[in-house]
Amino acid sequence: MTVAEIFKTEPLDATFGAVITDIKLAELDAATFTKLYETWLEYALLIFPGQHLSNDNQTTFAKRFGELEFDLAPISNVRKDGTVRDADDDVVKILKGNMGWHMDSTYMPVQAKGAVFSAHTVPKTRGETGWADMRAAYEQLDNEVKNRIANLSAYHSLYYSQAKMGHKPKEGSDYSGYGFFNQDPPLRPLVKVHPETNRPSLAIGRHAYGIPGMDPDESEQLLQKLVDDACQAPRTYHHSWKTGDVVVWDNRCLLHQATPWDMKEPRIMYHARIAGDAETEFAAP
Q: How many angstroms separate the CA atoms of 60 and 54, rounded?
């Protein structure tokens, strides 16, 4: 069996993404992971049905992609005691905020490289996670728009994106405060060149605002139009979760979003965030 035959790759009906089967993520050898990493760079989103990884195995798998920004965090509306959080909870407000298209940690000095996400408890219906291909989104822009945004940048802030939905974090809440910190927001170009594939992509999303030298309303309208135009078929995919599913995505070229569900139902996911390279993902305030 050749390395290429070790696992099966089925591309999604989109400009990106693939479902990977005939593989056990908890038992990867070096040759298989090398091929998997190459496949990840090509497709940007890999979906692994029915893996049922333990928390330790998920962390170990994520570390194969690089150092972690943080090991493992629950993305959940369930408290440690098993009760479901109410609508006024800061954690729920972050979950609702994440329903806007975004990239992870663009509001931090170093943007994340990617993430490994796993499903432990899923609602009966809805609660999908969506991704959008910012490589294809950039490619489909006409030359006038490409020229307009070529040298533009925007600030990124979690304070900004959460404030837009009326959320100001409360002192002493259960939310850890990650992303809410006292420093100037980083300034990031609207067009990003991927450090490993060299493909340009849009670097936009809900955390972006305030293009320097532009009227705030004009900046808001431009950034929102870029998101609205980018996040259309065939550049999007929404995954309907089953317990045990695992995904890994490239945060350097994809936007992602949560989607609504009946939040009286529990939803428990675990997220390991892969740290970005400080040489390529750093943005000074």
A: 10
Q: Do residues 209 and 157 make contact, with C-beta atoms less than 8 angstroms apart?
A: yes
Note whether residue 283 is domain-resident: no
For residue 174, give the 3-state DSSP assignment. Answer: coil
Tell how far CA 141 is from the center of its chain: 22
Does residue 145 belong to any structural domain of this protein? yes
Q: What tokens appear for 5 in the block?
A: 């035959």
pLDDT in tens, 241-276: 999 999 999 999 999 999 999 999 999 999 999 999
Domain-embedded: residue 136:
yes
- Residue 73 counted as domain residue: yes
Residues 52-89: tens digit of each pLDDT: 999 999 999 999 999 999 989 999 999 999 999 998 88
Alpha-carbon separation of residue 49 from 54, 109, 245 (angstroms): 14, 33, 4
How far apart are alpha carbons 45 and 11 in whole angstroms? 10
- β-pair partners for 7: none
In one-letter notation, the amino acid at residue 75 is I
Q: How many domains does the chain have?
A: 1
CATH number, position 54: 3.60.130.10
User: Could you give the C-alpha distances from 150 to 47, 50, 55, 146, 191, in angstroms and in order?
Assistant: 33, 42, 42, 6, 7
pLDDT digits (tens, 9 = 90+) for 144-187: 999 999 999 999 999 899 888 887 766 655 555 566 676 789 99
Angle (CA) 152 158 163, round 5°:
105
The alpha-helical segments, DSSP class H, found in the chain are 30-43, 55-63, 90-97, 134-139, 143-149, 158-163, 216-230, 278-281
Q: What are phi and psi of 40, to 5 degrees?
A: -60, -45
